[in-house]
Amino acid sequence: MHVLGQKGVVSLVLVAGFYGSTIPAFASTDANGKSEPPAKRVAAKVDAPAPLTERERWLLDRVEELEKRVADLESKGNATSSATEPSVALPSSAKATPSAVAANDRVAAVGPQATEKDTSGATKAEKADPFAFADFTWLDGNSRTKDTPYATSFFTPEIRANVDYNYSFSHPKDDTIGGSSEVFRHGEVQVTQLGVGGDVHYDNVRARLMTQFGLYSQTTPRNDASPARGQWNLDNAYRYISEGYGGYHFNALHGINVDAGIFMSYIGLFSYYQFDNWAYQPSYVSSNTPWFFNGVRVQIFPTEHLKVEPWFINGWQSYGRFNGRPGLGVQILWRPNGWLSVLGNQYALGEEALGVHGRVRYHSDDSIEIKYFDKPGNSGLDKMAFSLTGDIGCEHGGGVSCYTDSAKGPKQDFLGFMFYNRFWFHHDRYGLTLGGGKINNPGRYLVLLPPINGATAASGTPYFTENPGDPFKAWDASGTFDYMPSEYITFRGEFNHRAANVPYFSGPGGVTPTSCPTAPLVENICGSPGALVPGFAPDLKKIENRINLSILVKF
User: Fold this and answer.
1) How far apart are CA 268 and CA 283, in angstroms?
2) Looking at 76-188, which runs of residues are DSSP E strands?
3) Residue 509 burial by CB count (10 A; 0-12/13-18/19+): exposed, middle or buried?
4) How many CB atoms within 10 Å of residue 325?
């Protein structure tokens, strides 16, 4: 800085203010707003030859004192000034605003911490918001949007669109793709999901609604067998809702939320919405689920790094109960820093086999995600991360055994994993994901039933049985390329290779009967889920290769 630094300028302003408040003005304004010429100024000296009044001496002494203070401040400023501004140490309690976190999550925009008064009247620091200390938009299963247009203090709107084109190298003649909870038709442009909704929040009361129009409104409910028990068509009642719940936020610890309704399943790491994921088609550990829970959850945040979330739900990924016992579960999510996320989901005690009492299910789903490279300034490769998920579970009772073939029944368990590695390029404008996984599920209780002749999870089909001990092993690999010109849109291209040890995927002949017996000779059973059609056999293959092209939007 020059001789008159910032502090010197401030001091001179103070001196000028002092003169203006204590000495008569040198210029005055008349009634017309015109300025009169200023009177001559007299040099202010203590040893002035003219006699001074007592008030004038006091004023001159004050001026000299102020001039000395200005000189002292200037000398100190010159001694410590440098070419750059001095750094400011931020308090450890300062928290990052999620929408303002820099690309490198170790450098975040921060602001002063708000305070509140305790019962004694003393102020204390406000608790930090959970997981707001870093930018976690890099995670698989997390939305990468940092801002929501038109959000208000009462309502945060959300719009999602998932439109895709799938090309199967098997060319099924009925254009039907099976074995996936994300991909359903071949050679067509389809709206897989269109969701409109958002979050309402006022006075600690909260609610969320997200609709699901498009193929998801038909394909998601068909994978849930629970509506087949009893009346009132639960699959129709809920088919256009992907999320719908209400609850309350308690200002305890770092927050406690109590919600009831339908909310997304966490099993398998990936999000139900492809926009949030590193790949369009997740591996079997994630794909082989209907993707939702119906019940009550309590989200407890003991610290800003930890969430503990117990569930009381109707059943495993279901609208209703399958038998006489609901399910219990818990999620534990730990993020100690901005580059590590550890997730565990545990489920137990529900009876999930429709019409089979006493068959109890257990499942453990555990994931880790690590961002191991982060150079936001790079114009080429700027970020890398991986995710690893492992699942283990089993069923016992009702004619099956958890651990081994025994007198109680054949072994019925689930073992699987999936691994994905993600690369970001050119300041996160481009993305590349390579990955895949494998499962072993004897009894096929988590294997998606192929839609042969319109079969559903409730109807079953004689063409692909799900009897105790029926073998099923499968693996897959994929490559995904993303172009992301904005945080609100993704253009995605993906290649998938999938394989199984038994015929499972749609072949050229398809899975839909084309010629059917007709009444009155034979009851027309084409299109009747679970029916055995004389003269018909689905064309199922052990290998599937396909390409997915999609446009994904989220506001």
Assistant:
1) 9
2) 96-101, 108-110, 115-117, 123-125, 155-168
3) middle
4) 15
> Phi, psi (5° rounding) for residue 228?
-70, -10
Which residues, in sequence order, are bridge partners of residue 334? Answer: 306, 342
DSSP category for residue 228: G
CA angle 71, 77, 81 (to 5 degrees): 150
Specify the DSSP class assigned to residue 433. Answer: E
What sign results for the dihedral spanned by CA atoms 445, 449, 454, 460?
negative
> In this predicted model, what pLDDT tens digit does every residue of 241-279 receive, in sequence order?
999 999 999 999 999 999 999 998 878 899 999 999 999
Strand, coil or helix: 418: strand
Q: Contact 524/518 with Cβ under 8 angstroms?
A: yes
Cα–Cα distances (Å) from 86 to 2, 363, 455, in that order, read 16, 55, 70
Name 398's bridge partners.
Answer: none
**Which are the contacts of 413, defined by CB distance < 8 A and separation ≥ 6?**
392, 393, 394, 395, 402, 403, 440, 441, 442, 443
Write out the two tokens for 61. 């002494």
Supply 27's token pair.
């210029």
pTM of the shown model: 0.77
CA angle (124, 129, 131) in 5-degree steps: 140
**Structure confidence by residue, pLDDT tens digits, 348-381:** 999 988 889 889 999 999 999 999 999 999 999 9
Q: What is the mean pLDDT of the chain?
A: 82
